[in-house]
Amino acid sequence: MQNEVANVVELPYYCSVKVHRLMCLDLMKFIDRISQIFSAIESVRPGCVSGIQALCSLQNAMEKAKLLILHCSYSSKIYLAITGDKIMLRCEKIRSALELCLSQLQNMVPPLLASQISRIVDDLRVVTFTVESSEDEAGKVVLALIQQDMAASDSVNMLELKALQLAALRLHITSHMALLIEKRSIKKLLDKILDTDPTKKKILKYLLYLLRKYGKSIGGHRTENNITQHKKSLNQSTEPEMQVEKAREEAQLDVFDTPEPPDEFLCPLSERLMYDPVIIAN
After folding, report:
1. Is residue 259 part of a domain?
2. U-box domain: which residues (predicted)?
3. Containing domain of residue 143, as a range?
4. Integer Cα distance of 60 and 42 in angstroms
């Protein structure tokens, strides 16, 4: 178990879930409850092979839950919305794994501890995970747009504009700061993506293209006059002006940046900075 503990994912106290908040809160509640009795379960030392496997699987499921919560805290809001069904399925798989492991361990611990486990198992059996209606609506409208596979263009496409405005409103991307954070989140996803997943890469690039193209028009409710002005600005913009705008945007994003630590200082699971890293020379 020592190797398992070394890879524990810690949720920071400032962790704020962007999208799928209710599902993540349910997961967090179960993780907190299980964490409170995990040491007691471990101290019982279920020595049989099945007991050790159940304990390891339980910890693995807890780590997956924490990683999913972190994903919903730092990823792109729009991308989280369009992958809502996948997030819900992952929550359900984690729930099933937690229930199975705890049910197995319940018969290997003292009665008092078994009673505590039983209450958690009962709650796991009745919990349901659903995508919130506003996030579901945002995800569906953007997915419908993606499925049309529209070519990039300098002119305003009303389908794109209306879809992005609706999604931004539902996901609370309604300020300049929120827009910058959303763009940066997409860029970070693009930086991490592998060439083995061209579909995801294409989707992320399209989302970034939409935000750059219509960013000035998604700050809450817009009038027809706003849209007309945005059309004119797009039609009148030149390539150098677009490059200047992109550079300005990246400069604003750099305000939130801190120097990137070496890869050796990052946890391989959570990709967060370790407090006391040990580097072994080759």
Report:
1. no
2. 260-282
3. 133-254
4. 14
